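pinned: reference chain
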Amino acid sequence: MSYLTQKTIKKNVTFSGIALHSGLDVNLTIKPADPNFGIVFKRIDLKENNLIYPNFGNVSNTSLNTTIENEFGVRVSTIEHLMGALFCLGIDNALIEIDNQEVPILDGSAKNFIEKISLNGIQISNSPIKIIKINKEVNFKDGERFISVKPSTLSLDIDFEIKFDNPVIGNQRNKFKIYEDDLSDVYNSRTFCLFEDIELIKKNGLAKGGSLENAIVVKGDKILNTDGLRNQKEFVNHKILDCLGDLYTSGYRIVASINCSQGGHFLTNQLLRKVFQNKENFSIIEIKEKNLPHTLINKPLLKSIA
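pinned: its structure tokens
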């Protein structure tokens, strides 16, 4: 599918399920939207001040999920898997109506979002897309953890590693060219946790809806889920899914090279905040032609708009 013109969905797509952290039952409907509308969440359980924009500046929490909040304190949490699905499907515009405070976790991956949205169809407009081009290298570190973004000529490359003191998870690393590679293993990879962390997570009021139906649980050298792993690098692949969802809070898809070690929602959000602090770090570019040459950037068919 072309990434060159703005897209929305053809008709309403509805999802229902339990929320991972609140444990509440949630209904969510993705609705078509006009070009340049963007992605907007609407809390339909509230009558006013109920629009929340998934922008990195509106992210109010990054502990075990990404939560966005508007100026009135209205929030929607655990948006990352849905945002990752919209990013990878090329959905630029959609109104997401939700009747509670957290996106349903479904199976813990983006698989159900991807499959159902694709089945219902995608509507292609004539309006050109906009992309973010990274102009300068930007880094963010938190102890041994780090994330960096560098300029890239054409693609979005993500090189991600995780390090766990656990014999099953251990150290994993994977790299994808997001606009070129088969991302099935990324879409299908589920959220995960260590069995010994569950008690503390629940003491903090989280994971009330968590189960083996929506998360991989690792205890010692065993995976407690009877179906095992969906792919060999499911742990790091899920982190890449989270990264994609969080990157989409920039507002557009990105052309860049990203390298991350032991990162998560916090590091990705801090990186975006740092990038957009300085206009010299990035350009927002509108594609004006129907076809992309291999040398995407710095061609006349691209018009810088920021």
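why pinned: The chain has two domains: 5-129, 131-304. Residues 5-129 form a domain with the Ribosomal Protein S5; domain 2 fold (CATH 3.30.230.20).
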